[in-house]
Write a structure and sequence with these properties.
42% of the residues lie in helices and 14% in strands. The chain has an eight-stranded mixed β-sheet, sandwiched between helices. Strands 10-13-12 form a three-stranded antiparallel β-sheet. The protein has 13 helices and 13 strands. It is an alpha/beta fold. The protein folds into two domains: 144 residues, Alpha-Beta Complex (Aspartate Aminotransferase, domain 1); 236 residues, Aspartate Aminotransferase, domain 2 (3-Layer(aba) Sandwich), CATH 3.40.640.10. Helix 2 runs antiparallel to helix 9 and helix 4 packs across helix 8. It binds glutamine. Glutamine binds next to helix 1.
Amino acid sequence: MPSPANRLAQFTESVIRGMTRLANRHDAINLAQGFPDFDPPEELLAALETATRGPHHQYAVTWGAPRFRQALAKKISRDTGLAVDPDQHLVVTCGSTEAMMVAMMTACNPGDKVIVFSPFYENYAADAILSGAEPIYVPLHAPDFGYDREELRKAFELKPKAIIVCNPSNPTGKVFTREELAEILALAEQADAWVITDEPYEHIVYAPHTHTYAAALPGAFRRVITCNSLSKTYSITGWRLGYVLASAEVIAQARKVHDFLTVGAAAPLQEAAVAGLELPESYYAELQALYTRKRDVFIDYLRRTGLPFTEPQGAYYVMLDISSLGFATDTEAAEWLVRKIGVAGVPGSSFFREPERRFIRFHFAKKEETLRAAGERLLRLADKDWLARAK
Ligand code: GLN
């Protein structure tokens, strides 16, 4: 049998998706792969029903159905203050996952270096490898996961072609400030590098933190390639709708990559999702309040376990420090949590470049009753006698 391509030896299957399969096998509450267990807004469900009876069953325009791009451009313009042209500045993709791959293949040549902050969402290293680029890592330092200016400056001295910024950040919950983004942009300007952002949690940010769109900073639009998705904002992770936002010059190239990768995102779903993009501003305030409440409910349980954890500024992940439980690895701990406690998380090591084995990542995009059920189970971690028996 011929051997598969060498690049495949450089990365594994997704640990996040693997934990979902393990959770399902053991009937555990799945706080591993980040997706809601509640329905999208009623407006989207109604629009989906209508769309199924409409003339939307064949390919949409490859870079996005016109109505969808128009509604998207309007929403993004309102949020960012940019004058987004639906015909020039957008490519609609199958989720931000495809958007990131399109951005990487548009920006990088094989052999180029790409700065990735560590810990990072596991797709980024695979994206770099698939596009032939070499990731170089800059650590984000606990507890607030800021970067060290000197370390970032040194990484830019290696002449990277791009930097990836996940904001708000998965898995740390860090929200990059305007000043940090301006500094990253200035360094990218000096090195003539692209800034590729991944911003699916733009509307899930906890006060007093606020989201800054890197692309909307002065003079940034021609350098920033923004990747985003509707998955988290409208609770439709299975619809696989995302987009790349960039200058007309970049989009002209990105369209080609997208066209040959996937041709296009699902036509009826683009039609239906217009109803989400047209929701009033109050929807986003309610979403923020909803997630603030979920965060508070869940971290109250974590506090009661007595174990340290990271407090997110945005997104919907928490990392619980399980080092005091005495497992050899976080992977062993994560498997034990599924089998003995009945709650699935993701071993933190799958997000870190550094040999970091302290954390399990949980997400809290779940109904309050699910979070309480998981929280009650996790409280066993505070019961020393139970722990001694269960291990
Ligand atoms: N972004 C989500 C997470 O980090 C879902 C990942 C995925 O499976 N696409 O869990």
